[in-house]
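STRUCTURE REQUEST FORM
Protein name: Probable translation initiation factor IF-2
Source organism: Methanococcoides alaskense
Requested output: structure tokens
Priority: standard
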Amino acid sequence: MVVKDNLRTPIVCVMGHVDHGKTSLLDMIRGSSVVSGEAGAITQHIGATEVPISAIVDKCGNPGLLDKFMVPGLLFIDTPGHHAFTTLRSRGGALADLAVVIVDINEGFKPQTIESLNILQQHKTPFVVVANKIDKIHGWNPQKGAPFMTSYNKQSEHVRGSLDTKFYEVVGELYKNGFSSDRYDRVNDFQHNIGVIPISAITGEGIPDLLMVLLGLAQRFLESNLHYNAEGPGVGTVLEVKEERGLGTTLDLILYDGVLKKGDTIVVGCLGEPIQTKVRAILKPRALSEINVEDKFKQVSKVTAAVGVKISAPHLDGALSGGSVRVATAETLDAVVEEVRNEVEDV
Ligand code: GTP
Ligand code: MG
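Status: completed
Returned output:
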């Protein structure tokens, strides 16, 4: 087994139609309650949460897995499902190494379900589909936190029949959109055949199965990205530009490659000439905390991709959400400025 150091944490984006349960799914994985703090339970920002491998394995209920996987954890990105936020979904999709497309099994496919699939197809991002809210199927007998098959086998024949019907409607919709898929336990190669996992974000049923499939995909991702240079210059995308009391203008960003250190010179995309500044502080949310609601950031001197952090630096006014942040040295500065200038034209 390869040593676990210096491996890039895979970025997993959760996408889908409004209210289909993206934030609830992350709440279940984190053991948090972010949804209840959202106005009208509508997500309006891209979020990011680091979930360590130990927390994932814990939810799978099989500690022996810790030796099997070399992934250090997963960085989950939450996206809004409301139709107004296509830009944020595209940004999340562009950052993702892997994705989870969530669909309410009782409502079926909706416009933003299809939009999410299109974004992922455009970026060639591997993904799984979760058919959520199985606990709302009439007559469902909930089995808290159970693997899907355990729960399925405890349902009456009639309820199993209802689930199967709704489930195969999801498979049929995927087919109509150009994807061959099947129930995840019948899929051998998740990169060619989409695995569909029935879950409930509220009762936790099917969550162990989802996490196992994600770990398998993440492992594949890492194996094909071992060339990743953990000591290379940091590269990230700005999620949000925020005014913070005592810090002035700050950036919430996802560092998706390399290293970012306090004191580094960074080049930040903006509508005019890119900003050149020095990192004054790096503030990291706690593990399992959503960066959007975190209030106990920890100051750190160095972070390695992939990670969501808040940074403070002088002259950040005018920084562009969705723009790049790149670390530069005296030798690379001119080239990096040019690169960031070109990237802004694509935002
Ligand atoms: P946006 O971020 O606005 O796109 O919504 P979302 O996809 O994050 O949905 P959210 O997690 O906010 O859930 C919407 C509503 O559905 C909330 O009231 C949740 O409690 C409820 N919900 C989510 N998942 C489930 C589930 O598995 N079962 C049941 N019964 N309710 C669920
Ligand atoms: Mg949400």
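Reviewer notes: Residues 54 and 125 are 25 Å apart (CA to CA). The pocket of guanosine-5'-triphosphate (ligand 1) is lined by residues 16, 18-24, 35, 41-43, 80-82, 132-133, 135-136, 200-202 (CB under 6 Å).
Form closed.
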